[in-house]
Amino acid sequence: TGEPIIVNITILNPLSVVGSVIRVDENENTKNGATFPRFDPFNPEAELLELSFEYPDTIWPYSGWIAVIIKVTDTPLAANTTGIAEGLIFVQIQSGDYPFYTQTLELPLRVSIIPTPDRKQRIIFDQFHSLRYPGGFFPVDSLSSTEPFDWNGDHIHTNFKEMYTYLRANGYYIEVAGQPWTCYHNASDRYGTFLIVDSEDEWFEEEKTKLKADVDNGLSIAVFADWYNTDVMSELRFYDDNTKQWWDPVTGGSNVPAINELLKPWNIAFGSTVYNGLFTIDVYSANFSSGTSIVQFPKRGSLVNMELYDQTADILHKKQIKTTVPVLGYLETKNMEQPNAGRIVVFGDSSCLEFHSTRKAVKGNKGPGVTGGRLNKEGGSCYWLLSSILHFTTVAVFDDVVEDHITTYLTTGMGLEKSVENKTLPCRPEKGLNVKNSRVKAAVGDGKGALCVERAWRKWKRVEENRRRRLFDKEAKDTGVERSGKEGNQGQGVERMDGMLLIVFVVLLLLLVLGWRSKANRGMLEGRRVREKGVVYYN
Q1: At 246, is the secondary structure helix, strand, or coil?
Q2: Which of 17, 65, 228, 294 is the most buried (most CB within 10 A)?
Q3: Quick check: 64 and 56 in contact, CB under 8 A?
């Protein structure tokens, strides 16, 4: 039931400037195995895979790509299978003009299959709402950085790679949501936590409605926002000498107005003041680098206050102001009407989750399935906080890191939800996201709405055993190790014998050449002798 994995393969074609990937669909005239691209499974586990291929119409100039999308079929057998799926992908490349030159690429594929994990250990990471430069002027998350642009795109394979590695090492399974949230059916039954980190794009109205329904049915949300202030954005405006235009940020570190609209059903909102500093909870600390604070929160929720510097005042007025503000909020949403509803945790910064945050391992509590300690270094990452948040979203219990540092509004009746009017919430800038740099606005402008990617999935049956043996015999010869995993002594012996035969053949060839040259030299010598005797012919 996991989300498909996309593997991008780069094609280098030095034979021709222009080429193409040959597509041969299966029909009544093609034999089994004659389609291209295709996958040949080698074992029963590989027959549980479904593959889809995407590639451009033209490989130009000299290079191209092909995307292999892999998923495990949704069956009870696959949900309880443990093993390694092995097979071979065949792709044909056509080069040049007529007559065309065709090459067949053989790409070995191995995929690890595990039983479906418990939903509490499954996290789905929102990547669809992440935008980056050069699609527009998306400023960097930390205003203290010398780099003005957000290049990395907020993905678990780029700037959040170390966060992904940490979560995997601690027993969690992370999947990437690369489509609108409406494309993920039964999400509350499959996942424990929806992780929204530094989202810059807008949200479809259908997504907001579905997310509210999923939370009511048991899905939890963890939101890591970032700074947002229109006056600070105006300070980042610059003139680009290349385009001869003024560049204005289309949003802040994250799109706080869009996040506030997403969290509106629970009366949660972030503010527009930018804060910066070192925060500490218990024995753990990390950088709060150009983040925002919570300005609206339900009175039944729990908040953690931190003493930070007002970076907005520093940037706009050159003033150093230190204040205590709530930046971390915990909310249990279940009630009499929704007894199985999930939980929501919000935090005002995401920079401490990125790869540049140095860290070291220290001893700490463990969440469900967690096998490693927390990570912390003064001025470094906040993976220890992420672990604490996931502990709450999965088992609905505060761990000892934040339990003694929570301010609870239960008896006063005057929580933050009544301290902020809508007119003081952050608003969108005049030159904000548009159809050129926003997936959501582009889809809404075209009248398409939240569309899901439709792919042509296909399963293949196992190939004959001798083809598999030939492939792995070749692999064993290349690596010096047999398929069984033993040392390839026999293969090495065959290689030595082949080498000896080659040496013998070369020696015989040299002897033949030397013999022919010796005979030719003798013939020339005899002819010279006959000529000296006055004979006009040669032997």
Answers
A1: strand
A2: 228
A3: yes
Q: Which pair of tokens denotes residue 432?
A: 């904000």
Element containing residue 281 per DSSP (H, E): strand 275-281
CB 123 within 8 A of CB 394: no
How far, in whole angstroms, is CA 420 from its chain's centroid? 37
Tokens of 484: 């069984």
pLDDT in tens, 214-266: 999 999 999 999 999 999 999 998 888 888 889 889 899 999 999 999 999 99
Q: How far apart are CA 436 and CA 446, in angstroms?
A: 12
Helix (H) or strand (E) holding 491: helix 489-532
| 285 DSSP β-pair partners | 280
Question: Which residue type, as a one-letter code, is found at position 452?
Answer: C
Distance (Å, whole) CA 172 – CA 184: 19
DSSP 96: S
Sign of CA dihedral 205, 207, 210, 211: negative
From the list 116, 118, 114, the residue with the least C-alpha distance to 395 is 118
For residue 228, give the DSSP letter: -
Phi, psi of 353 (to 5 degrees): -95, -5
Which residues, 6 or more positions from 25, have their beta carbon under 8 angstroms from its beta carbon? 35
Which residues 6+ apart lie within 8 Å of 461 measured at CB? 32, 41, 47
Judge residue 224's burial from the number of C-beta atoms within 10 Å of its C-beta, 0-12 exposed, 13-18 middle, 19 or more buried: buried
Residue with tokens 């012919």: 537
Q: Both tokens of residue 46?
A: 């590989």
**3-state per-residue secondary structure call for 14-29:** CCCCCEEECCECCCCC
User: DSSP class of residue 36?
Assistant: B
Query: Could you give phi then psi for residue 449, rounded to 5 degrees?
Result: 75, -160
| Residue of 161, 181, 178, 158 lying closest to 169 (CA atoms) | 161
Name residue 528's amino acid. R
- Residue 392's nearest CA partner among 333, 352, 307 is 333
How is the chain split among helix, strand and coil, in percent rounded to 5?
30, 25, 45
Radius of gyration of the chain, Cα coordinates, nearest whole angstrom = 32
Strands 193-197 and 122-126: parallel
